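Protocol step 4 of 6: structure prediction from sequence.
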Amino acid sequence: MGSSDPWAQGSLAPLFVPLLLAPQYNAVEDSISVAEGLPCSPALPEETPLGLLVARQVISDLSIQIRKEVQVQEIEFSEIVSTSEQIWCSKVAQLTSEIPSALSIQDLNYRLVALTQLLSVAPYEENAVALLPYVKQVRHELSNRRAGPKSIVRKTNSQTDSS
């Protein structure tokens, strides 16, 4: 079974072997100076074309401008985050200023909904963790009020004697 690859068949190899061994195809530019111990010639010509210099300057200017814009955006973003965190903290402080047992059922319902919403948008996990105990107190107080007062029925002596 014959292979379709001409290199495997060996038909093209004899054509290219002389080219691979020819010195004019293997010579490195200025290889004589390296063989004699002299330094290599610079990769770029001594005089860089004006167009290349202008292009480098434009790229450098654009890079500096982009870095400045990124820094300004980072500063603006950190200010926005700081402001939103302050607003969040002030809302939480306002809603948690009173103890839950001193609030009406309507206030407890309102605060529970508002605080639950604030928990979901807390700027940091630490903020949410700090708020969670107060939310639990509000829930507990609300559930106690909805269940109503629990009365304790005491047996009197006459009830225990007749049983």
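Step 5 (inspection) to follow. The radius of gyration is 42 Å.
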